[in-house]
Amino acid sequence: MHAALAIASLIAVFPVFWVVVVSFKPDSKAVEATPTLFNESSVDNYVDVLSGTKGAFLSWFGNSVLIAALTTVLGVLLAATAAYAASRFRFPGRHWLLLSFLVVQMFPFAVLIVPLYNILLTLGLQGSVLGLVLVYCSTAIPFCTYMLKGYFDSIPAEIDEAGRVDGLSPFGVFWRLVLPLARPGLAVTAFYSFIVAWGEVAFASALLSADDRSKTLAVGLQVFVQQNRTEWGHLAAASVLVAVPAVIVFYLVQRFLVSGLSAGSVKG
């Protein structure tokens, strides 16, 4: 069993390792017939990417951070309030609301590009950061709501009753008592919302302005894939830099992920 796990781990890790190796090689040496690990390695690719010689990387990075942060905060806030209402209150249409969250997840996101584009165009938000954030929230909130609803179900309702006895309003109970207990679930949904916005390409390509400095990181990487050739070294270096924030976010929330996923999946 350990040998099988070791082999599976090597298979999973090797592509990432090789991208890191290629990121230190010149474009002409990145796809050699006989690849080598360290010959002609340098940090020139990283210098070119970060200095703006190859694309407006820092502008793309700022756009991605802004969009991902807004999506995470807005998505988790809306999903948490909706999930708490679905968990604690009984109202007409509650069952169909939860069912709709599951149905929405069945549609490929690609088929939503045209209708979402028309909606944003009507609202005057096409090509704006806010419009893209709302689109990402519309894709992240259904899953996050269903996940958090299961997590709130695992928190005893007696806590809510005790808070009301102490004079807290329904929102006060939610904000001061329930949310602190739901940190693992919030961490899972925050991580999911961040990943949805950080690495997405299709919506960002179709809905953002065509200006080079308005692109996100995932869209900006296409600069390194030209019609006649691909700058593999620079593309690999940019890919490594794109992955770093996601790794940092995962490290910050990883201790909550297992408990959050398991608690949100056993009750609903």
From TrEMBL:
Transmembrane stretches in the record are: 57-84, 96-117, 129-148, 186-208, 232-253
Q: Where is the ABC transmembrane type-1 domain?
A: 61-253
Which Pfam families does the annotation name?
Answer: BPD_transp_1 (PF00528)
The main location is membrane
What top-level branch of life does the organism fall under?
Bacteria
Annotated keywords? Cell membrane, Membrane, Sugar transport, Transmembrane, Transmembrane helix, Transport
Which InterPro entries does the UniProt record give? BP-dep_ABC_trans_perm, MetI-like, MetI-like_sf
Task: Classify the protein's membrane topology as the record does.
Answer: Multi-pass membrane protein
- Subcellular compartments: Cell membrane
Q: What protein family does this chain belong to?
A: Belongs to the binding-protein-dependent transport system permease family. MalFG subfamily.
List the PANTHER family hit by this protein, alphabetically: MALTOSE TRANSPORT SYSTEM PERMEASE-RELATED (PTHR32243), MALTOSE_MALTODEXTRIN TRANSPORT SYSTEM PERMEASE PROTEIN MALG (PTHR32243:SF50)
Mind telling me what this protein is named?
ABC transporter permease subunit
